Amino acid sequence: MFIDETKIEIKAGDGGNGCHSYERMKYKPKGKPDGGDGGRGGSIYLVGSKQIHTLQDVAYRHRYKAERGAHGKGKTQTGRSAEDVVISIPLGTIVYDDDTGGIILDCLDENRRALVAKGGRGGRGNAALVSRNNPNPQFCEPGKLGEEKRLRLVLKVLADVGLVGRPNAGKSTFISRISNAKPKIADYPFTTKEPHLGIVKNNSGSFGSSYVVADIPGLIEDCHKGKGMGIQFLKHIERTSVLAIMVESTSVDPLGDADILLNELSRYSELLAEKPKCYIMTKTDLLPDDEKNKIPDGWLGMSAVTGDGVDVVLREIEGVLSHQ
Q: Are 27 and 80 in the same domain?
């Protein structure tokens, strides 16, 4: 199951209480203060991981709580500090404070640990409170409370290229041909119900050794109003460098279809609509030879089924990427 947004509650551990104690020795019924400090409560960290791709595991629990620190003991024994809790999240996750709406973390780096809830400090025992003005403290400190927050996690997948098109435009077939991604492919609309990522090896040498392509569910006119699959998945191409606008060769008005897609993108975000683009006519194997000139000027044609034109499309995408 692909989960790209969830809310969780986190509670860092409270600090252990300090100890109020006195040294006990033979013939010395009340010695000096020797109460130990309480231990620190466990903190909660988020860490980015390439090994997970959705928020499903995080959403399963909903509430995360670290243990409190152990209380201090006599003979100036400090309580044990509690273990920290580390929550792994996929790269590309933005973490919001659900109460204030502020961004706590934009997770882009693998293995980077970010403190999101600090454990409470342990209280001081009466031994630590001895001073010249108070050589015999009659009290100790309680442990401090650990931080408690409600977080909203939103995943925006990290990809270099975003595939945009109507349902059954051939996006899934294309990404399955150029990468190891295995999206569902069928001859009915909305077979893609969640984003898919594919890693493509770059053979042109113009942009790194590989890059990531994202296939998102198809867009239809007025999807910004909730029609079809809506625009809920467009956030997954906000971070992309290049958009590949894909239109079927069977379209009676390819330019009009492309304009509809661009209109829906602009309604979601003007910045998204302004990204560099490649325009691709798909399923050209369905075009008779005398209709090959149907491809608009400046567009590329390809058939992901036969492979015809796929290399040309990849070189074009890689060329645009190299200038970003």
A: yes
